[in-house]
Amino acid sequence: MKVVHIDLTGPFTVGMNYQENMLSEINAIDGNEVYFIATQYKWEADKIVQAKESEEKTLAGVQIIRMPFVKLGLPLVTERIRLVRGLDCLLDKLSPDIIMLHGFQTMSVTFITKYVRRNVGCRLIVDTHSDEINSAPNFVSRYILHRILYGSMAKSALKYVSKIWCISYDVMDFSHVVYGIPFDKLEFFPLGGIIFEEKEYLERRSNIRGQHFIAENDILLVHSGKMSCSKKTVDLFKMLKKIKSDRIKMILVGEMDTETEAVYVNEAKEDKRIIYAGWKTGEELLSYLCAADIYAQPGTQSATMQNAACCRCSLMLYPYKSHIKLFDDNAFYVESVKDMIKVMDKILSDSSIITQYRARSFAIAKEMLDYKKQAEWLYE
Predict the structure, then answer these.
(1) d(Cα 257, Cα 31) in Å, to the nearest integer?
(2) Does residue 20 contact residue 11 with C-beta atoms inside 8 Å?
(3) Which of 76, 162, 213, 219 is deepest in the core (most CB within 10 A)?
(4) Distance (Å, rounded) from C-alpha 54 to C-alpha 37?
(5) Residues of the chain with pLDDT > 70: what percent?
(6) Are 274 and 318 part of one and the same domain?
(7) Residues 320, 170: contact at Cβ < 8 Å?
C-alpha cells in the first residue's frame, strides 16, 4: 500500500519524536511504501533553518520530499497561506492509497482534494492540532486566519475526508466552533508515544540516573521544552525552594527564554538538586523520560506529555479539559505552587503513591497512546 503524509504547517525534522514522524516511520516498518511531503524548513537545535536537501530518506525508508511555498508578497502572508504549486501533479505521480494530511491550515488543501476527487479509491485522513490556547490568542488569529481562511479550507474538504482526527478535546471544540465542522465528523486521536520493551526501558533509566548521580530511591522530576512563563518553569523553582528534601531532584531538558533563564541564574542555579541538561535530541529526551518518576508540565500543553506516559512517568499536569478526559484521576493536577508542594509532600510521606500513579498512567498509554497501535487505525 502507498501512504503519503503531508505536513505544510511547520518545519519537519527527520529523527524527531513528533506524531507525524512516528506514524510515517511505523507505516514504513509495517511494509508500506511511504512518502512524506514537507516544507523546506526543519529544526536545527533550537532554531528553524532551511533544509539543504530537497529529498532524503529515513532509516525506516520514508521518502521525504520537500517543496517550497509560492511567494505571495510579504513573508508573513506566504507562511500563513502555505501554498505549494504542483502538489496535485506530485500526488498523481505517487498515486497514494492513503493520504494523511497533518493540518487543514494550508491553501494547498484544494490540490489534495482535487486528487482525491479524481481517485475515489484514495482515502484522505486529516488530523488537526489547533485549539483556543495555542492557535488563536488574538482577534486576527481567531477570526481572520482560522475562522475565515482555514475554516473555509476545512469546510471545502469535508466531503472528501474519511476521518478528521483531533489530538485533544480542546481541539475538537475549536474545530467545531471556529472551523464549523460538525461534531459527528470529529474523532479523538491523541498524540502518542514510544513504548519500550522492559530491558531497554531499564537500561535507559539506569544510564541517565547513573550519569547524573541520582539514587534509585530519589524522586526525579523532568521538565522539558521551551521553558517560559506559560510553561510555569519558575513555579517549579519556587516549589523546590519550599521543599527541603534532598530526595527530590529535577532535570530541565530544553531551552529557557530570557526571563526564565534570569530567574534560574539568580535563584535556582545554586540548588544542586536542579540539573539543567540543555537541548537534547528527541531520542535523548526519551531516555530522560525513562529516568523520570514524574513528568512535570504545570503550564501549557506539550506533546512530550504523551511520551512521558509511554515512558512510565507519573504526570504532574495543569487540569486542562483534555488532560482530565484522557487521564481522569490518574495524574497529579496542579494550578499553583501551593498545589505542587501538596503533591510532593504527599509523595514524600508515602513513596508507594508514585509507583501507583506511574502504573496507572502507563496502563492508559498502552491502551491509547502507543504509536504502533495508532498506526493501525490509519489502515482501518
Answers:
(1) 42
(2) no
(3) 219
(4) 10
(5) 100
(6) yes
(7) yes
One domain for residues 230 and 177:
no
Q: Whole domain around residue 350: which residue ranges?
A: 198-369
For residue 321, give the CATH number of its domain: 3.40.50.2000
The burial class, CB within 10 Å (0-12 / 13-18 / 19+), for 106 is buried
What tens digit of pLDDT does each residue of 14-28 get?
988 889 999 999 999
Alpha-carbon distance 135 to 44, whole Å?
Answer: 23
DSSP state letter for 314: E
Q: Residue 200: which residues within 8 A CB-CB, separation 6 or more?
A: none
Inter-residue contact 175 to 103 (CB < 8 Å): no
Domain's final residue, options 189, 213, 242: 189
- The model's pTM is 0.84
Mean pLDDT over 340-345 rounds to 98
Q: Are residues 250 and 118 in the same domain?
A: no
Q: Where are the beta strands (DSSP E) in the chain?
A: 2-7, 33-38, 41-44, 47-50, 55-57, 63-66, 98-102, 123-128, 161-166, 186-188, 219-227, 248-256, 274-278, 294-297, 314-317, 332-333
How confident is the model over 237-289, as pLDDT tens digits?
A: 999 999 989 999 999 999 999 999 999 999 899 999 999 999 898 889 999 99
The answer to whether position 204 is within a domain reads yes
Amino acid found at 299 = G
Within this chain, do residues 230 and 176 fall inside the same structural domain, yes or no? no
Among candidate residues 286, 320, 270, 291, the one with its CA nearest the CA of residue 213 = 291
Q: How far apart are CA 159 and CA 113, in angstroms?
A: 9
End-of-domain residue from the set 163, 189, 215: 189
Q: Are residues 50 and 171 in the same domain?
A: yes
The one-character DSSP state at 104 is S
Cell matching residue 121: 479509491
Per the DSSP assignment, residues forming a β-bridge with 294 are 221, 314
Closest alpha carbon to 294 in 274, 268, 312: 312
CA 171 → CA 127, 129, 179, 301, 325, distances in Å? 10, 6, 11, 12, 13
Total number of domains in the chain: 2
* C-alpha distances out from residue 237 to 182, 249, 278, 340, Å: 43, 11, 16, 11
Report pLDDT for 134: 77
Cα 16 to chain centroid, rounded: 10
